[in-house]
Specification:
By secondary structure, this protein is of the alpha+beta class. Helices cover 65% and strands 13% of the residues. It has 1 helix and 2 strands; from the N terminus they run ββα. Strands 1-2 form a two-stranded antiparallel ribbon. The N and C termini lie far apart (76 Å).
């Protein structure tokens, strides 16, 4: 991988090359990186699903509250 840094107002470039840490890495290290990537994806899915569930619960609560308020108002007016 090559990293090129460009500075505003400058025509010079500074290049740095960094070796990929997974190339020639031990199998156990590569496996652990894959596990961590999998856990990160699972965590993101869980957080997204919890946010969706919380939003649905909030909508249901608002709908129920509005329905209860309308029913109470109808009873009071009769």
């Amino acid at each position: 991988m090559m990293l090129v840094l460009l500075f505003a107002g400058s025509t010079d470039t500074v290049s740095h090359a960094y070796a990929d840490p997974l190339v020639n890495a031990p199998t156990t290290f590569q496996h652990r990186v894959m596990q961590m990537t999998s856990l990160e994806a699972e965590t993101k899915r869980w957080e997204r699903n919890m946010a969706i569930a919380a939003a649905a619960a909030a909508r249901l609560k608002r709908k129920t509250t509005a329905s209860t308020t309308a029913t109470t108002a109808a009873k009071d007016s009769s």
